Amino acid sequence: GKPSLPRKVNSNQSSPKGQVRAAAYNIAVLGAAGGIGQPLSLLLKMSPLVASLNLYDIANVKGVAADLSHCNTPAQVSAFTGFAELPDSLKNVDLIIIPAGVPRKPGMTRDDLFKINAGIVRTLVEAAAEHAPNAWINIISNPVNSTVPIAAEVLKQKGVYNPRKLFGVTTLDVVRANTFVAQKKNLRLIDVDVPVLGGHAGITILPLLSKTRPAVEFSPEEIEELTVRIQNGGTEVVEAKAGAGSATLSMAYAAARFAESCIRALDGDESVYECSFVQSEVTELPFFASRVKLCKEGVEAFINADLNGLTDYEQTALEALKPELKASIEKGINFVKQSL
Ligand code: NAI
Prior knowledge:
alpha/beta; six-stranded parallel sheet; three-stranded antiparallel sheet; about 15% strand; binds 1,4-dihydronicotinamide adenine dinucleotide
């Protein structure tokens, strides 16, 4: 639950005078002019670990970049508009973050976005495979349960798939779980950490309240209420925005936290853990969100222990989510295979 501001930088990057220089990583944000893309880019611009920030969108990105470039923080901001400029936006980047696509309106599920967003993610990941085959990829575009398998399939076709470097961003589910639990139990926000497993849609979101740190007792009613609220947190925002989109500010916060964790791991920090939807070994499903330990090469280890000693409620919820999650994964894989 702690905000992941940089605490360490590489000692071998000290300047001759012994001053510690900030690390220098290059990030591309694809869909940077959108509701998530703009505040996410602002938060990344504030990070001393970021050397350059390439902002790509099909429209309106020039102004966003000009605006951000006036902040007196080190990251060099550049704008890339339209498909012809996509390759240049990916040159030499370490991390690609993808919030491109349409968001939900009231009454829509994340799967309703598949028709439009599947193709957008495929196109962007094809370019990533060609122009930045070693970069880490953070997928935000929904439905994450399908767009991550789409990205994996595209990368496989291009012969550059490294499952350790492909991540579906589920951090907002963790952020919401931490906030809602802290409020309910009157805990200090900064202390609370709830692992959230499974996927990123409705009942596939599985908060493991029994694994909350610090240890807390919940009544069965509290478990039911909190679980449902965490699963429907996105819908709460969609309804409040009443047609103007879905979560953007909390999402940008969550995505910036996850990106910062990726960069810290790249930079050699050996104590970086995050929940993320990744190619997985922890259940029989090929993709699954769980806590993973990150290292310079991407995912280093799965925290399998989170799945030990589940409560009956959690075990039942885990079994209940598997068919839906499996179907969403297969839908993504088939989308790429059928278009061959
Ligand atoms: P938005 O509509 O405000 O912004 C999307 C941006 O993507 C626009 O600037 C648009 O021009 C751009 N775009 C569209 N097609 C593109 C293409 N082919 N290439 C590059 N850019 C393209 O939407 P918002 O609110 O920023 O949401 C973006 C996505 O994030 C949605 O799919 C939404 O469902 C998802 N999301 C994911 C969450 C998560 O927890 N993973 C949470 C909230 C939203």
